Inverse folding.
């Protein structure tokens, strides 16, 4: 059996000036297209700028997966530079959206990008200075992978990856699965998928919380659990390495919650009020990434794969994850809709003691995304 390769969780480049690993996208030369965009915005005095006029911004994401594929496209295509930003983009050391939300609240970062669940929950608990600039992912680029022993056992019972989604979900009864901790986006997605098909996530299966994505994969491979629920391309890892396979694909097998405000770019109202030009340029880069994902090319895929986050990943896993993920972005734009919000509220309320009471206009300010629209 081949040795397991692990998806790196470190940021794209280490900075000698900071203890946290991060990538700095320096705008040494703003391209002509960026110049035209900036001119259309009327210039800015929002924040400090380098000698080349690039505006500085800090952006923090959860670990690099295809759940936030637009951000990796932005980095791979150097779009922040193109729109006149000197962007310090960092990835947290754990796939924990709440850490990103706390960084935004504390001012450690200007803009966070993570699953919407952490943002909605924080807002519901009184952090009403938070505001979303728009949605990066309108679907669930998420899957459940099982190890080979479990696949063989289920096949003996007559259920295979080709069976209906209902049969595949119900076949999970009695199994032990692992995911991110309860209350997280990933854990909630798993619970929702089970509940949609009449499987009680608290009684019919055992869900072991683990905030370490690499450990989730390892425990599944070792047979200590039957499977793990993670974003693509991690969920493609077992099949690519020959020790398991993909069992469920949320974007296909859970259509009742789509479209969805799954992943957000968000900040604080105070920062947005002081920095509307920077916010607009950030969303310009997001529009460019979404444009690319409407007709994704092999060249784009290879540029994303060349990022340090993905360069050491099994190529088959990356390519399979890419194919699953890009379809979820078809028709996507940063402009969140009421329907996307309502579907996300439904998901978040699954794990809340009291339902969310705020509305769409309370948590969204799409002015920057609208101003940046091509």
């Amino acid at each position: 059996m081949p040795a397991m390769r692990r998806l790196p969780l470190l940021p794209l480049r280490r900075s000698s000036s900071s203890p946290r690993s991060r990538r700095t996208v320096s705008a040494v030369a703003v391209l002509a297209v960026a110049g035209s965009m900036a001119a259309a915005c009327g210039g800015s005095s929002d924040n400090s700028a380098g000698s080349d006029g690039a505006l500085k911004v800090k952006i923090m994401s959860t670990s690099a997966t295809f759940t936030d594929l637009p951000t990796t496209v932005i980095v791979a295509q150097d779009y922040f530079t193109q729109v006149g930003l000197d962007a310090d983009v960092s990835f947290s050391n754990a796939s924990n959206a709440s850490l990103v939300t706390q960084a935004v609240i504390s001012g450690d970062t200007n803009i966070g990008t993570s699953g919407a669940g952490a943002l909605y929950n924080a807002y519901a608990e009184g952090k009403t200075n938070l505001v979303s600039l728009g949605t990066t992912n309108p679907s669930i680029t998420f899957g459940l992978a099982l190890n080979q022993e479990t696949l063989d056992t289920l096949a003996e019972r007559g259920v295979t990856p080709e069976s209906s989604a209902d049969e595949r979900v119900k076949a999970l009864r009695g199994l032990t699965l692992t995911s991110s901790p309860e209350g997280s986006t990933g854990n909630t997605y798993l619970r929702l998928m089970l509940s949609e098909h009449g499987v009680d996530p608290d009684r019919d299966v055992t869900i072991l919380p683990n905030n370490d994505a690499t450990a989730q994969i390892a425990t599944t491979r070792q047979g200590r659990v039957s499977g793990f629920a993670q974003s693509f391309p991690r969920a493609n890892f077992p099949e690519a390495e020959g020790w398991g396979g993909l069992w469920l694909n949320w974007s296909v097998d859970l259509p009742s919650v789509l479209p969805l405000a799954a992943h957000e770019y968000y900040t604080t109202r105070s920062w947005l009020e002081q920095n509307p030009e920077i916010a607009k340029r950030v969303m310009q880069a997001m529009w460019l990434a979404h444009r690319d994902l409407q007709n994704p090319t092999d060249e784009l895929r290879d540029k994303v794969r060349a990022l340090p986050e993905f360069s050491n990943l099994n190529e088959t896993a990356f390519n399979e994850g890419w194919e699953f993920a890009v379809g979820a972005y078809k028709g996507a734009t940063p402009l969140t809709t009421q329907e996307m919000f309502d579907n996300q509220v439904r998901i978040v309320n699954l794990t809340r003691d009291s339902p969310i009471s705020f509305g769409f206009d309370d948590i969204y300010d799409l002015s920057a995304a609208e101003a940046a629209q091509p």
Summary: Residues 23-139+259-372 form a domain with the D-Maltodextrin-Binding Protein; domain 2 fold (CATH 3.40.190.10). DSSP finds 18 helices and eleven strands in the chain. The CA atoms of residues 176 and 224 lie 8 Å apart.
